[in-house]
């Protein structure tokens, strides 16, 4: 959700994402211009771009999404300046496909201390963005019971809770 909103705030367009269909309207309200089923193929994803895709932000970063990101950036041929941003380390199959560095790969590491030139203005603005509705925080579902609620939260997660962040208050 945050990546879509930051892309919108930064002026990117189109903003394309994949998700289950139940989240389409919510994601569009946050700034996604196109929401495709998470099983969409490369050609479907590329179809909404007026030019070859040059940047992919992979917020999931598991093997399947890394490989899809690679294919979006390299089908039918690698895009000059193509770049993928991952939240998790590259999986081996992705590294193998990208041997020869066909695309650039960046790992995201958020550190306010390490990146003060970016973080100070960000932290000065984020409160205003939330108050003004420009940035919408994630929806949360509180799981009662303090630490004792963790098994229930894990069970909800295993059952595929979606569209909310599960919150446990350990001090309860």
TrEMBL record:
Gene Ontology MF term list: oxidoreductase activity, acting on NAD(P)H
Signal peptide annotation: none
InterPro entries named in the record: ADH-like_C, NAD(P)-bd_dom_sf, Trans-enoyl_RdTase-like
Matching Pfam families: ADH_zinc_N
Limits of the Alcohol dehydrogenase-like C-terminal domain: 2-74
SUPFAM superfamilies per record: NAD(P)-binding Rossmann-fold domains
PANTHER family referenced in this protein's UniProt entry, alphabetically: HYPOTHETICAL OXIDOREDUCTASE (EUROFUNG), ZINC-TYPE ALCOHOL DEHYDROGENASE-LIKE PROTEIN C2E1P3.01
Protein name: Alcohol dehydrogenase-like C-terminal domain-containing protein
Species of origin: Rhizoctonia solani
Lineage: Eukaryota, Fungi, Dikarya, Basidiomycota, Agaricomycotina
């Amino acid at each position: 959700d945050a990546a879509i909103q930051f892309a919108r705030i930064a002026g990117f367009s189109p903003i394309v994402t994949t998700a289950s269909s139940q989240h389409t309207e919510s994601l569009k309200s946050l700034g996604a211009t196109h929401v495709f089923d998470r099983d969409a193929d490369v050609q479907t994803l590329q179809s909404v771009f007026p030019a070859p895709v040059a940047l992919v932000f992979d917020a999931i970063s598991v093997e399947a999404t890394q490989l899809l990101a690679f294919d979006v950036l390299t089908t039918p041929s690698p895009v000059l300046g193509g770049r993928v941003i991952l939240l998790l380390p590259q999986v081996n199959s992705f590294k193998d496909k990208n041997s020869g560095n066909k695309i650039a790969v960046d790992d995201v590491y958020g550190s306010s201390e390490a990146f003060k030139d970016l973080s100070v203005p960000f932290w000065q603005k984020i409160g205003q963005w939330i108050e003004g509705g420009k940035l919408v925080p994630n929806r949360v579902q509180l799981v009662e019971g303090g630490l004792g609620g963790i098994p229930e939260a894990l069970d909800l997660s295993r059952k595929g809770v979606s569209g909310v962040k599960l919150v446990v208050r350990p001090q309860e």
